[in-house]
Amino acid sequence: MTGPPGAAAPGPSAAPPATGPAHRAVPPRRALLAGAAGNFVEWYEFGVYGCFATVIAERFFTPAAAGPDPAAPLLAAYASFAVAFFFRPAGALLFGRLADRAGRRPALVLVIALMTLATTLIGLLPDRATAGAAAPWLLVLLRAVQGLCAGGEFGGAVALMTEHAPPGRRGRYGAWQSFTVALGLLAGAGAAALTASLLSPAALSGWGWRIPFLLALPLGLTALGLRTALPGPRTRTSAPDPASAPDPASAPGIGTVRAVVLGVGRIMGWSAAGYTFLVVLPSYLQSTLGASFREALIATTLANLGFAASILPAGRLSDRVGRRPVMLAGALAVALCALPFLHLLRDPDAAATAKAAALLAAGATVGLLAGPGPAMLAEMFPSSVRCTGLGLAYALANAVFSGCAGLIVTALTAATGDPDVPAYYAGGLCALSALALAGLRGDDHRGPLR
After folding, report:
1. Measured CA angle at 436 (ends 434, 440), to 5 deg
2. Residues of 239-275 as b/e, b for ≥16 C-beta within 10 angstroms?
3. Angle at CA 82, nearest 5°, toward 76 and 87?
């Protein structure tokens, strides 16, 4: 890798990769839709799983199997949640190298097909009462498959969107990756809330929780159709121009590893805050504050609405003023406001409108990180390793700081009795992330991708 991570070398902003197969031009909006559709399906499932964590704990991780601790089943459910995240780095390497060498389409098609299959099978999976001790292991196996697919999804989708973005709009186009995260989480929460409102508690726990998982099948097939329609790589008919030959320094090596580590540091606050406020929140409100399932879902929906509303404006703003000021503002806002936010939620005298506004604002601060984040990562890597590099940085950050968020927050809260643990977790990591973000170059958003 030449130059500091994030620096851009001269060349067209949507140039085809310098190594591997040549690629047919894809209309920007078509690339955007194909990339976003699969990402929506992925995060829909993760949102559903987060909302039904307590039900899944009951159906698959019973107290008798998990031990005398009443928190043990929920911890076991979050452990299975974390398993998927720890398979993400392997998926980023596997599918990232496929996308960098064979083209974006085959990797993205394979990823969405496997993800849809695994999510549908979770909806059909027998629980512990039916399958015995095999049930939780089968669930963990399917979560592992989902983790592999999710690891390959981000790198390929972000590369597709940003490489085909019009000049000066990488932040806006990359922000659609994060926006479909918000849409997927909202759809997952909405499907869970609708199911819970239509069914009795007994029916919901017995079989109703499966319905939102099974809805992933038609959603996934739609995304699969959009991706199979993308143009594939074309075969070169002449030798490549020596002037466009890859620089040996840009091949996978020390520079790429350094950029991956730096990328993890820049987005770990985004990962921690996103999952603390947007995914872990329902179970935290129920187990720590005694909220009902309905109240927890409403709170999560409000936070996700704030998240969704800020993502695209943040991406557009980063195209104008740069990635650094927008993402720094988000990281510092979480670091400073996470503790007052939780105190407000716990205050019995606080007005419902104040709590609703706080939930919307908490989600919006995460959106300031998530909007420019995909483009920022894409600008850190040359095309020959872009899918692998940005996918691996994102997967590692999510594995450590997102996948473990529910496990860490639940375990520390149970051990210490301190309900402020989520604020310490999200705020502390955002403070560290702000230090890494401060090193971003101010003009990275202006130059073309390498």
Report:
1. 100
2. eeeeeeebeeebebeebbeebbebbbbbbbbbbbbbb
3. 135
Sign of CA dihedral 437, 438, 439, 441: positive
Can you say whether residue 347 is alpha, beta or left, with left for phi > 0 and alpha for psi between -120 and 50 degrees?
A: beta
pTM above 0.85, yes or no: no
In degrees, to the nearest 5, what angle opens at C-alpha 271 toward C-alphas 355 and 224? 105
Spatial distance between the Cα atoms of 178 and 175, rounded to a whole number of angstroms? 5
Q: What is the C-alpha separation between 417 and 136, in angstroms, rounded?
A: 28
Q: Residue 190: its pLDDT value, please?
A: 84
- Could you read off the pLDDT of 153-181 as tens digits, one per residue? 888 889 888 888 888 899 999 999 989 88
Nearest to 274 by CA among 201, 338, 326: 338
Calpha distance 267→270 (Å, rounded): 5
Range in 62-71, 80-89, 120-129, 341-350 the model is least confident about = 62-71
pLDDT at 235: 36
Whose tokens are 């973005």? That residue is 165
Amino acid at 145: V
Q: How far apart are CA 403 and CA 409, in angstroms?
A: 11
CA 90 – CA 217 distance, rounded (Å): 24
Question: What value, to the nearest 5°, has the Cα angle with vertex 411 and ends 407 and 413?
Answer: 120
CB within 8 A of 64, min separation 6: which ones?
Answer: none
User: Within 10 A of 285 (CB to CB), how many other CB atoms are there?
Assistant: 21
How large is the average pLDDT for residues 129-136?
82
- Closest CA relative to residue 181, chosen from 95, 269, 299, 308: 308
Helices (H), ranges, 127-236: 128-131, 134-163, 170-198, 201-203, 210-214, 216-228
Are 236 and 22 in contact by the 8 Å Cβ rule? The answer is: yes
CA gyration radius for the chain? Answer: 21
pLDDT at position 339, please? 92
Closest to 49 (Cα-Cα) out of 177, 175, 146, 167? 146
Q: Give the Cα separation of 16 and 326 in Å (integer).
A: 29
DSSP string for 264-293? HHHHHHHHHHHHHHHTSHHHHHHHHH---H
Structural tokens at position 58: 């009951």
CB 442 within 8 A of CB 376: no
Count of positions (residues) in the chain = 450
Q: With beta carbons less than 8 A apart as the criterion, state whether 47 and 279 touch.
A: yes
